[in-house]
Specification:
This protein has 191 residues and is mostly helical. It folds into 3 domains: 1-35; 36-104, no CATH class; 118-191, no CATH class. The protein is built from 7 helices and no strands. The longest helix has 29 residues, at 3-31. The chain is elongated, with a radius of gyration of 21 Å. Residues 6-11, 13-34 and 107-123 have low confidence and may be disordered.
Length: 191
């Protein structure tokens, strides 16, 4: 093989890998059961997020099942949503997810203190800032019925919100911030 043929083959391989990297998230999302949330799930998630946040702020114990919206589960039901029992199940599933995220809040996690996907946010300000900004952006996009697109967010693209010179290099800060932003966004969006 000549050098030119090796170069062409390498270039085609690089184009194929780049194409797969771009297409894989959308394909994986659809393939692994992550369709767009139903109206019932969205309604439940929003109500649960509010209830969980309120319980955390008031110092109440973690308990979504005592919430009136969870118990009733059909306060936002409309006939065009289909069967009421299916709506109730999806609403409760969304409520539980939203409540958990609202109750845990940014930078908090139940369990061993490793917090939020294994990141030690309390020890790493870049990740803490990224997670909190991502969580807020994910919740906002979910509530606004916008697509799941964390990397289209302005703060993700800049990656330096909250940066101070004494944190270290901006490139390292950006990498940690963006990694945590995506995790926070995912949780805020309810995935």
């Amino acid at each position: 093989m000549s050098g030119r043929e090796v170069y062409a083959m390498g270039f085609r391989h690089l184009v194929l890998v780049a194409t797969l990297a771009i297409a894989a998230p959308a394909t994986a999302s659809a393939q692994f059961g992550r369709p767009a949330p139903t109206p019932a799930y969205r309604d439940g998630y929003e109500r649960g997020l509010t209830a969980g946040t309120d319980d955390r702020r008031h110092g109440d114990r973690y308990n979504y099942s005592d919430e009136r919206d969870y118990q009733r589960a059909d306060g936002f039901y409309r006939d065009d949503y289909g069967r009421r029992d299916v709506y109730r199940d999806e609403f409760r599933h969304g409520f539980e997810s939203g409540y958990r995220i609202g109750y845990e809040g940014p930078g908090r996690g139940r369990g061993n203190g490793a917090n939020n996907g294994g990141y030690g946010y309390r020890d790493d300000l870049a990740r803490q800032n990224g997670f909190e900004d991502g969580l807020e952006a994910g919740q906002k996009d979910f509530r606004g019925h916008r697509r799941y697109e964390p990397i289209s967010e302005g703060r993700y693209r800049s990656g330096d919100h909250g940066y101070k010179n004494w944190y270290g290099t901006k490139d390292v800060y950006r990498a940690r911030y963006r990694d945590a932003f995506v995790e926070g966004y995912r949780r805020g969006y309810g995935w």
